[in-house]
Amino acid sequence: MLCIGLISFVYSLGVGTNTAETHPKLTWKNGGQTVNGEVTVDSNWRWTHTKGSTKNCYDGNLWSKDLCPDAATCGKNCVLEGADYSGTYGVTSSGNALTLKFVTHGSYSTNVGSRLYLLKDEKTYQMFNLNGKEFTFTVDVSNLPCGLNGALYHVNMDEDGGTKRYPDNEAGAKYGTGYCDAQCPTDLKFINGIPNSDGWKPQSNDKNSGNGKYGSCCSEMDIWEANSICSAVTPHVCDNLQQTRCQGTACGENGGGSRFGSSCDPDGCDFNSWRMGNKTFYGPGLIVDTKSKFTVVTQFVGNPVTEIKRKYVQNGKVIENSYSNIEGMDKFNSVSDKFCTAQKKAFGDTDSFTKHGGFKQLGSALAKGMVLVLSLWDDHTVNMLWLDSVYPTNSKKAGSDRGPCPTTSGVPADVESKSADANVIYSDIRFGAIDSTYK
């Protein structure tokens, strides 16, 4: 047993000592009580270099051939480094507010976007069971144009970042490891505590990213995916109730297979007011006026959950969610199994949400406990058109019109140059009983 432990240690994902890992502080409220939390940036954004030196293990969108000829050797040679949150990633916090800047020109590199997690303590993610609860936050998306996504959501990551299940992972939650979502992403540099370097291929349209042969799957509750033009609330479910590594085509579209070929529901069941037929509800100068900040209230009705309700609060006024207005479909202003089935039928979409268990599976995933993710990103795959424009771009069928942004918008090169100063501000996170966090 001693030999096995030593071997695991030798090949484990370690941490560097060049930059101290000092997490930004972030207060939030649980049942009315103030909680002193912290946030950590995802391991994918971190500098990865050799132990005891500053030589890059990962540079641009490639792993070093010398240092990482295979995953085991790569894990032996390389470490994750601490983060300069403001200088490198454009992430700052003050009290209960967290600001994420889109493009940050640091001393040694240019950073685009970020993904952060709420910590319970230095080494443990804060876990949320949303069943029968309400999750509320205030957001400022006034500086998020077409093509950007300020996303706040929950995923079934391990509470410790995977250190218990995967002994090769020494870095853990403190260094933002263990990510997964319903897209089974293969662009993660580390999965299950080891580098995802085997079979790594650089992305042709992203100088910072690539894809390995493995992906990381888990259920995902998208409370908020939005810019100043459109927003969506979307549950996604997976067959497994914890983070699970996939390989190749079993990762679905991201692994080179069919879109619906994974153990997860990639499309989810989304409620986007524009897509659901109300084009005067959300946006600059509209009912929910995105030119100024507002509060987003999401209610998970039932334990286990059977319905997701949405409210907004702006300038002291509670605004109920818009109703759907789609031909041949009953009117809904919340998300439920009934809504999902009706929406998929009306739009002619594949109902993978129901296939993977619908709200019954969602309730089980929420009960398992989920990690809060706060992010800002652009889309190198389809330019965020699925959120704020017509997608597919040549489609005339119902549901394709998702927002008013031009189909030529959202190209990452354009967004990163013209909207480099874009940012999103999340603040005043509140969690508690239904109808207790916003009145």
Automatic annotation (TrEMBL):
Range of residues in the leader sequence: 1-20
Molecular function, one GO term: cellulose 1,4-beta-cellobiosidase activity
Protein keywords: Carbohydrate metabolism, Cellulose degradation, Glycosidase, Hydrolase, Polysaccharide degradation, Signal
GO biological process, one term: cellulose catabolic process
EC number(s) per entry: 3.2.1.91
Top-level division of the source organism's lineage: Eukaryota
Disordered as annotated region, ranges: 394-413
Class of the enzyme per the UniProt entry, highest EC level: hydrolase
Protein name in the entry: cellulose 1,4-beta-cellobiosidase (non-reducing end)
Reactions mediated catalytically: Hydrolysis of (1->4)-beta-D-glucosidic linkages in cellulose and cellotetraose, releasing cellobiose from the non-reducing ends of the chains
Similarity section: Belongs to the glycosyl hydrolase 7 (cellulase C) family.
